[in-house]
Design goal:
single chain; alpha+beta; nine-stranded mixed sheet; five-stranded antiparallel sheet; 19 strands
Length: 401
């Protein structure tokens, strides 16, 4: 075979489909040990969390003071999420009596809670703000979501409502909560966010949504669950025109607005000046995954390039390449590094055996992992400044003939 034909064969070998390579080789050799990913949720993470209006650190005095105040008044919370979200929501809903004509944009959450303790009332905006700030102070990712009627630009008072959403690590999704009414929503047993509720409404299934209100809310208000939920469904059904969240872009606070039933853009709010805003038609700008971790693999033992393989092993054709692959195949010896979109990230934890304890990763860019024969498993998760665990990334990798 002349040099040109060898080079041509080399190009064909190197560009050959991997699946075909494995299939053909399985018929020609029994000694090759293959590295094969069996199961994996390891994937690229997005950077949307950079735009969330979150504090840069949970160690800031504002949030430490909220945490201390809530723990003193409310007590420690030992429930797993999302149940702890609903219990905290129930506590927030009982802090004051709703008054839609009273709102104070100048008061922070701690000031609102102290004023409420002295008998002052507030609007839905304060319920949502206090709820989200408390969850944030405890290490969860929560946000205020504004929802409106179609007349928000020049309508009267009552054209908008404020609720909260919180990211659940265990469910890997955003969950809708309305702390004014101590209500959350489910459909066929699955917790919903506001957009999922809108999707059900579009399909004519809005009244199939299972709104759940706490027993204590019913008791405090002297009403039964059935009546509260019925009225709430009618009340909420008005607010499916626009939804909006606060984001930070280039250091500036901006209202990001997504049109649901509403299709027109607007600048004013109930006849007054609206907050600096931008509209999006991509729902992924509103809903995105958080607290994810990506595992990056670097081989520690380099492999030969194709031209060297052809010369060193006297490869004459494709079949020859496959039959000799075990002599130059990759070694399962890796340096792993990690990346995460966890706000307030502190460190990573890793474990291999399902029953073993989690161990702290000393360096996010230097974790050595050499596969043994058979099935290999790795779990990795992030931990934030409050000790809240992120979503687990798990891979099963088989190394065998």
């Amino acid at each position: 075979m002349n040099t040109f034909r060898i080079y041509f064969t080399l190009i064909s070998i190197c560009s050959f489909n991997v699946i075909s390579l494995v299939n053909i080789h399985s018929q020609t050799s029994q000694s090759l040990k293959k590295i094969q990913i069996i199961t994996s949720n390891n994937k690229q993470i997005n950077d949307h969390f950079y735009y969330l209006a979150l504090p840069s650190s949970l160690n800031k005095p504002e949030f430490q003071n909220i945490k201390q105040f809530v723990q003193k008044e409310y007590g420690e919370n030992a429930l797993a999420e999302p149940l702890n979200f609903f219990r905290i929501m129930d506590w927030v809903s009982s802090r004051w009596v709703h008054d839609g004509s009273i709102s104070s944009s100048t008061m922070n959450t701690l000031e609102i809670l102290k004023a409420a303790k002295s008998g002052r009332n507030f609007s839905c905006i304060e319920y949502a703000k206090v709820m989200s700030d408390i969850l944030t102070a405890l290490g969860y990712i929560s946000r205020v979501v504004g929802i409106t009627t179609n007349d928000i630009a020049y309508g009267s008072i009552g054209e908008g409502h404020a609720v909260s959403e919180v990211w659940s690590n265990s469910l890997q999704k955003w969950i809708f909560i309305d702390p004014q009414f101590s209500i959350h929503a489910k459909y066929k047993g699955q917790f919903l966010n506001f957009y999922e509720m809108y999707e059900l409404k579009k399909k004519g299934k809005y009244y199939d949504i299972e709104f759940e209100v706490s027993e204590s809310y019913c008791k405090v208000n002297g009403r039964n669950k059935k009546d509260i939920i019925k009225e709430y469904k009618e009340f909420l059904s008005r607010y499916f025109s626009y939804m909006m969240i606060d984001i930070i872009k280039d250091g500036k606070s901006i209202l990001l607005i997504y049109g649901l039933d509403g299709k027109d853009q607007f600048l004013t709010s109930q006849g007054g000046n609206g907050k600096t805003s931008i509209f999006t038609d991509d729902i992924d700008d509103m809903y995105f995954e958080l607290n994810q971790t990506t595992i990056l693999f670097d081989f520690n033992v380099p492999t030969l390039d194709c031209s060297t393989i052809v010369q060193k092993y006297n490869v004459k054709n494709r079949q020859d390449y496959f039959s000799k692959m075990s002599e130059f195949a990759s070694e399962p010896d890796f340096t792993l590094s990690f990346a995460t979109n966890t706000p307030w990230f502190s460190f990573y934890e890793v474990k291999h055996d399902e029953k073993s304890d989690w161990k702290t990763v000393q360096s996010s860019n230097n974790y050595q992992w050499k596969l043994h024969d058979g099935m290999n498993v790795i779990h990795i998760r992030s931990v934030n400044q409050s000790g809240i665990y992120g979503v687990i990334t798990k891979m099963q990798i088989q190394y065998q003939e």
